[in-house]
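Prompt: May I have another protein with tokenized structure?
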Amino acid sequence: MTTDNLIFETASDGQETSQGRVYTLSGGDWDQVKAAPAGEAERVVVNMGPQHPSTHGVLRLIVELEGETVTEVRPAIGYLHTGIEKNLEYRTWTQGVTFVTRMDYLSSFYSETAYCLAVEKLLGITDDVPERATVIRVMLMELNRISSHLVALGTGGLELGALTAMFLAFREREIILDLYELVTGLRMNHAYIRPGGLAQDLPPDAIAKIREAIPRIRTGFKDTENLLVGNSVWMARTKDVGVLDLDGCLALGITGPTLRSTGFAWDLRKTNPYCGYETYDFKIPTVDTADTYGRFLIRLAEMEQSLQIVEQCLDRLEPGPVMVGDKKIAWPAQLSIGGDGMGNSLEHIKQIMGTSMESLIHHFKLVTEGFEVPAGQVYQAVESPRGELGVHMVSDGGTRPYRVHFRDPSFTNLQAVPAICEGGQVADLVAAIASIDPVMGGVDR
């Protein structure tokens, strides 16, 4: 701990440094503390993190306090660095999906979709992706938006003492994770969306189970709404806390619920549509409070809109392929599980190996070497639960990316931390940071 003229010195008289006089606090009897010379001003620098509940990951905040007031706060990142962007340069285009799905681990399908849309742009096959695959992508992304928002609402409530809010949110999230497991085999880090389509089609009972889950999820939303909306204690902790107006958001490049809480209806699904979002009927919720409470309301409203999109997706699903027809690009999308619950079924292996020797060789080369992508560069953005998730992708004409860089919204939104926290109380620091919902896997990619 670093202080300037702090009175609780019991171990030494301190020493002068470039940051002022530094004292070591080591406790002591009250008589010793009381007898220490009183300073004219008190400035305490505290490390919040790098592991702390409100940071939603491994984030360090260097907080300067005067009493209970935050005078300065500086985010320090990099504790969760995975080197995913660099690793992509050493993997084939399809293998890259397995990496990007692990960045923002709360919204994996958005990273997968943004990456695959960029690859498809470079390949020039955007219009060749089967309609069924595109509809399934939209459906999974909107379910993912709900599950991500539920984590934001649940942990945000937990950090402010609303333990029941966390139980309610994770109850509904568990339903969605079960659907993920049904469709992809995994609860997170799916690598299900592939360049050209999907890894495999929906299981036979998936549509019925998703339809069955929607009313349960919608009913669960009402419990969270009834618990917190208008709750005097909740509003006292969130209203007029972490305020960031429209000018501040635009200056810092802030997107997502934080931007829409200022009343600005900016959502890439409407302003720059992809995956056919322009054909879906949904609204962009906004409020004009520009505070923590407003961001909470935005996420509640967005979850209902996402459910409406999921229902529309279910109505649109028609039988058909889920991978492009070009066999020089398409990985097998008819995979099935063997009797031991692992690998491919014997029937599928026979189909691959029994077609022809040339077919087997092609399959082997496609999986081991990958397909070539024409030289060029693209930028593709999607509207993730935290805002604009963009990918800048560069190809040199080979079977591996030359460079892939993600514009992760959590990284950009963290710039708002000083603006929304300085001048407020230290207790409000937790609520303000939770309201922008940073996920450090996306920040430290």
Observations:
- The two ends are 30 Å apart (CA to CA).
- The chain has a mean pLDDT of 85.
